Amino acid sequence: MMQKMYDWVDERLNITPMWRDLADHEVPEHVNPAHHFSAFVYCFGGLTFFITVIQILSGMFLTMYYVPDVINAYESVKYLQNEVAFGVIVRGMHHWGASLVIVMMFLHTLRVFFTGAYKKPRELNWVVGVLIFFVMLGLGFTGYLLPWDNTAYFATKVGVQIADSVPFIGPYVKTLLTGGDILGAQTLTRFFAIHVFFLPGALLGLLGAHFVMIRSQGISGPL
Amino acid sequence: MAKQDKDATFVGDSRVSAKRIPNISPSYSDFPGKNEPFWPNFLLKEWMVAAVCLVGFLVLTVSHPSPLTDKANPNDTSFIPLPDWYFLFLYQLLKYPWAAGDWVVLGIVVIPGIAFGALMLAPWLDTSKERRPSKRPVATGLMLTALVGIFYLTWAANHEYHLAHPDKGKGTGGKEGSSATAPAPADTSFKADALWKAQTSCMGCHGKNMEGGMGPNLQKIGATLDAAKITDVIKNGKGAMPGGMIKDDAEIAKLAEYMAGLK
Could you list the residue ranges that cross the membrane (chain A) (predicted)? Predict the structure, then answer.
């Protein structure tokens, strides 16, 4: 039955090469912790992705309760935290996951750097990886404001002031981020849009490019 | 796209070749070393690692509810902002006089620009074929220096914050809306001494019974500051608090003595 369904789809879409590439490819010995325990350093990239998936899922559930406006944002987070079943867990995962993803990505970057894996022919994948790092920092910065508590408000105020003091483009960046002269209703809505639509879109595109390049180039060889 | 035979046939009017590739796994024993297939052998191991990490992650989540301080109040001038920990190193950099004020361009554009620019352009800056860290001392050395710098700056920012706010920074979760950064709860039964009640300028900010208001709660100030330090704060001010509100030194000494006794 399964074989028949597979054949039916394969006849129309030729999925076998895709399956070969996605799933049925070789994993070299030197990256496999089952053979060399020190190869656990090669797990950091996968764990970064794993936590990113957790962030996306927990974030999707958070938006089912979160209200992005200055009057209700704080109340909705408080409600989610204290009243909703498992709300404290879902918000906790998103909150701590934001830190963990940075930690994992940092470790992954160091692994790639110290094994010299960014060298020819993998230069472009390194650049995409650094861009992913920036997008993640952007997600952290914009997400920090969304609970609209004092910590969030004043940390963002400092961040926006820092952006403002960049010569020439600073004031424009500030206006782009805050949507006005002050950090207020416009800012919260903008940060929500950036955090939930713009940056995740960029992130998914970059992650796709990252993975396609890994598959087409393979993992760098042993040192 | 894949090359097609001249007389290849296609499925209907699509560009999918009618000639099917049989779905047979390659023989992994032909690869050098102990290669194994990603699916399902390696993926299973990856999932085990992920499961262990997930357990640790959930333990952290359950034991430390995410913090939630009071609702944002733009007029709260006493609130000391602190960015999330992974921005602390940049935040700390901008506190140094050589990277702030007239030199802010250095701290805000030049140093981070060079650091992140070099990170992004690493493949073109380090073009040797050599991959071992010990064989490319410049790249390894620069990265280690940057790491030490980042760790030091993050530590310094956190350390300075805790020095300046000894009562803050103990995460308590968001259950009651009180948290690391909220002021100590005021003791309503606390009655300040007549020495305090004589100082209307202090009461304006710290409250009739030292319960706090614009300024922090001082009901247990003796636990963190001694008389000499309190005298210094009264004379010279601190943060948003102005100094020199009380002119008479003897009066300051008496008040400081009284406040240092509050524990």
Answer: 39-67, 96-114, 126-146, 192-214
ipTM of the complex: 0.89
Q: How far apart are CA B75 and CA B83, in angstroms?
A: 19
CB contact under 8 A, B28 and A162: no
Average pLDDT, 10 consecutive residues per value, chain A (223 residues) = 91 89 88 91 95 97 95 95 94 96 97 95 96 97 95 92 90 92 92 97 98 92 88
Q: Which chain B residues touch A43 with a CB distance below 8 Å?
A: 46, 49
3-state secondary structure of B2: coil
Q: Which amino acid is at A76?
A: S
CA B177, B183, B185, B188 dihedral sign is negative
| pTM: predicted TM-score of the whole model, two decimal places | 0.78
Distance CA B215, CA B206 (A): 5
- CB of A155 less than 8 A from some CB of B: yes
DSSP string, A186-220: HHHHHHHHIIIIIHHHHHHHHHHHHHHHHHHH---
Of B42, B67, B181, the CB nearest to A27: B42
User: In sequence order, which residues have a C-beta less than 8 Å from that of residue A215 and are 6 or more positions away?
Assistant: A21, A22, A25
